[in-house]
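User: Hi! I have a protein structure encoded as tokens and I'd like to know what sequence might fold into it. I'm fairly new to this, so please keep things simple.
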């Protein structure tokens, strides 16, 4: 009887998303016995576990093993050598936001190692890296998927690719791409009721775990700009980087250089009047203000910042920390194709990664 096909899984990153992914991988391996999924490598920034004979690493006690491991993570060239020598097809799951790992993607792909990842930096960095990643994959036949780099588990990239690949003409993409910004503006400028003070809402968002440890990392708009860069490129625009188009920062100039996120939060109330004026101007027009990203494909214009919306607009009616992405296309006419739902969180982000892994398995196994 022929031996069952086997696919080796190598994981970099075992934080929030990494933990959720491991749980989903364990379930997937039980539900789909063929090909057999074998975890052969896992690393954090400081430690790793792998066996010279490629023996499977059991998932259920992987965190205690990592804690007591004396093995250091392998640098990308050494890791490629190790994974290639196994003789089995391998998928690298990069659950980090590391630029160094992202820069090595062309090497992994060029050596036949497929990649699934939520790492935005690989696909929103220089346009040269973007080209190198996809050309390496094309040449070797390795696969690369990154659904979770935009909108966590929401099918944003796959939907855009389906539209483009079936010959539809995408004219505009617009939406709320940040769970943090969604939460902030839904509570600061709700469609009904008064809403809170801007600085108080930022503080609340941080306490609830919606913002980065330093809220300026959300308020500078760069996270949204990265996601827009990725989508614009998939739509066929050669966007050079997330800083090559207008991105509105909500950080008051005077607070850009304060030492810590805590100091920023302490000083932010002094600038509440600026955001109050913006909110009041929208209310005078019977509208609400939202932080959105938009891509006008025809004019090749990409921008991120505050926009006013009628109360009946789907973007205005968003709840909680949900994301919403609208695709305006020739086929869909004046009514866009809308994707909406949770755009952040460990389980839904890991779901996007696991879903990408299933796509790779269907193509390589």
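Assistant: Happy to help. Inverse folding works backwards from shape to sequence: for each of the 365 positions I chose a residue that suits the local structure. Here it is:
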């Amino acid at each position: 009887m022929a031996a069952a096909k086997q696919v080796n899984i190598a994981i970099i990153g075992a934080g929030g998303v990494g933990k959720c992914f491991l749980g989903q991988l364990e379930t997937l391996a039980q539900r789909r016995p063929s090909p057999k999924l074998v975890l052969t490598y896992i690393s954090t920034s400081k430690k790793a576990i792998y066996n010279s004979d490629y023996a499977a690493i059991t998932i259920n006690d992987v965190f205690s093993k990592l804690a007591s491991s004396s093995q250091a993570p392998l640098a990308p060239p050494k890791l490629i050598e190790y994974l290639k020598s196994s003789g089995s097809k391998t998928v690298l799951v990069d659950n980090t936001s590391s630029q160094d790992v992202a820069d090595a993607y062309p090497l992994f792909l060029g050596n036949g190692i497929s990649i699934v990842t939520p790492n935005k930096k690989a696909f929103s960095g220089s346009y040269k890296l973007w080209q190198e990643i996809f050309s390496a994959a094309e040449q070797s036949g390795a696969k690369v998927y990154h659904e979770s780099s935009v909108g966590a588990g929401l099918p944003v990239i796959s939907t855009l690719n389906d539209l483009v690949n079936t010959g539809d003409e995408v004219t505009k993409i617009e939406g709320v791409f940040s769970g943090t910004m969604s939460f902030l503006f839904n509570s600061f400028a709700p469609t009904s009721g008064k809403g809170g003070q801007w600085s108080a809402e930022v503080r609340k968002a941080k306490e609830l775990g919606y913002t980065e440890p330093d809220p300026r990392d959300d308020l500078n708009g760069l996270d949204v700009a990265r996601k827009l860069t990725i989508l614009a490129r998939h739509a066929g625009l050669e966007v050079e980087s997330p800083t090559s188009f207008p991105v509105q920062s909500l950080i008051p100039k005077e607070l850009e250089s304060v030492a810590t996120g805590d100091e920023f939060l302490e000083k932010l109330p002094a600038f509440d009047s600026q955001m109050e004026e913006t909110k009041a101007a929208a209310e005078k027009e019977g509208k609400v203000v939202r932080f959105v990203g938009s891509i006008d494909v025809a004019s090749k214009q990409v921008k991120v910042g505050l926009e006013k919306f009628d109360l009946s607009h789907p973007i205005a009616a968003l709840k909680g920390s949900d994301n919403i992405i609208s695709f305006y296309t020739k086929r869909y006419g004046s009514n866009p194709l809308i994707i909406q739902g949770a755009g952040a969180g460990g389980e839904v982000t890991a779901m996007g990664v696991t879903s990408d892994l299933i796509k790779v398995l269907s193509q390589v196994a």
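A useful reference point when you look it over: The CA atoms of residues 315 and 324 lie 7 Å apart. Feel free to ask if any position seems puzzling.
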